[in-house]
């Protein structure tokens, strides 16, 4: 059983590399389940649309997770109520439309739980991610409620993501961070069998500042005349992790991290 998780797709470059490559990647690497974080997939890099979700599902994506940009496109509030394969962070204040957790059927018919959480440090206010995670772990169990569990923890600080990885160790197949758009070099299987990487990176143009026009971002930091952030239009890289899972335990055997195409030609 192989799970592919792709980091935040950013703008038109991020979408196009996915639409061009995902179906062949799924076939070549024998992937059974695909999750992508889509919170920046709109042309503006803010939120995503129903049309974009359809395109992702048509090219092999099973579930789309999000984060702080989930509501940036107004239509998402109503679309998410009809589309259970689109998740928003579970710890948003209630009542919020949609859901932060679901159980889905993989291409090989196994049951995969996907949980989307958002961090509390330097992020929009939401319920305590660790308390919500603790309640979740009391309610749902690996192999009882699903065969595998993927946790997308969308947050700013490495320490918060690192702690969540250990918190779920032995209870989730994969805990992976999103939001910072820069892939971290720490993919590993933790002590009790959970695959972990602090940030999956972005599917976007790396000749940028986290997907946005670099000169404009530098001007902003210099407090000089600048425009609202806008995505770059260069060639994107695909970035994420592939987890080889143990069907007996639901835990990870191996995690492989990759970032390739566009500016970043390396794979590690
Ligand atoms: Fe993002
Ligand atoms: Fe984000």
Keywords for this entry:
about 20% strand, binds fe (ii) ion, about 270 residues, 11 strands, alpha/beta, 6 helices, six-stranded mixed sheet, Purple Acid Phosphatase, chain A, domain 2, single chain, five-stranded mixed sheet
What this model shows, in words?
By secondary structure, the chain is an alpha/beta fold. The protein has one domain (2-260): Metallo-dependent phosphatases (Purple Acid Phosphatase, chain A, domain 2). It has 6 helices and 11 strands. β6 (148-154), α5 and β7 form a beta-alpha-beta unit. The mean pLDDT is 96. One fe (ii) ion binds at residues 39, 67-69, 154, 179.
| Helix percentage range | 10-25%
Rg estimate, integer Å: 17 Å
Shape: globular
Can you tell me the CATH superfamily? Answer: Metallo-dependent phosphatases
- Read across the widest sheet, the strand sequence of neighbours is 4-5-6-7-9-8
Straight-line distance between termini: 21 Å
- What's the CATH topology label? Purple Acid Phosphatase, chain A, domain 2
Number of strands: 11
From the 3D coordinates, which CATH architecture would you assign? Answer: 4-Layer Sandwich
Main sheet overview: 6 strands, mixed
Percentage of residues in DSSP E strands: 15-25%
Number of domains: 1
User: How many alpha or pi helices?
Assistant: 6
Can you tell me the residue ranges where pLDDT is under 50 for at least 5 consecutive residues? none
Order of helices and strands: EHEHEHEEHEHEEEHEE
Please identify the top-level CATH class: Alpha Beta
What binds here, in terms of ligands, is: fe (ii) ion
Arithmetic mean of pLDDT = 96
- What is the structural class? alpha/beta
């Amino acid at each position: 059983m192989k799970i592919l998780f792709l980091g935040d797709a950013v703008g038109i470059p991020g979408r196009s590399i996915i639409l061009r490559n995902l179906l062949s990647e799924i076939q070549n690497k024998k992937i059974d389940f695909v999750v992508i974080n889509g919170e920046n997939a709109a042309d503006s890099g803010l939120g995503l649309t129903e049309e974009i979700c359809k395109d992702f599902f048509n090219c092999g994506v099973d579930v789309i997770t999000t984060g702080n940009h989930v509501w940036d496109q107004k239509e998402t509030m109503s679309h998410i109520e009809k589309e259970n394969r689109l998740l928003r962070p579970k710890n948003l204040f209630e009542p919020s439309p949609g859901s932060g957790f679901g159980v889905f059927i993989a291409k090989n018919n196994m049951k995969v739980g996907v949980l989307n959480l958002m961090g509390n440090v330097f992020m929009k206010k939401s319920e305590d991610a660790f308390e919500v995670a603790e309640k979740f772990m009391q309610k749902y169990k690996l192999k009882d409620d699903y065969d595998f569990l993927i946790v997308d923890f969308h947050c700013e600080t490495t320490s918060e993501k690192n702690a969540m990885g250990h918190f779920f160790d032995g209870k989730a197949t994969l805990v992976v961070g999103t939001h910072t758009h820069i892939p971290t070099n720490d993919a590993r299987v933790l002590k009790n069998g959970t695959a972990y990487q602090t940030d999956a990176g972005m599917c976007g143009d790396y000749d940028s500042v986290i997907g946005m026009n670099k000169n404009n971002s530098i001007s902003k930091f210099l407090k000089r005349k600048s425009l609202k952030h806008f995505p770059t239009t260069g060639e994107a890289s695909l970035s994420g992790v592939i987890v080889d899972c143990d069907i007996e335990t639901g835990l990870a055997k191996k995690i492989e991290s990759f970032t390739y195409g566009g500016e970043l030609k390396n794979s590690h």
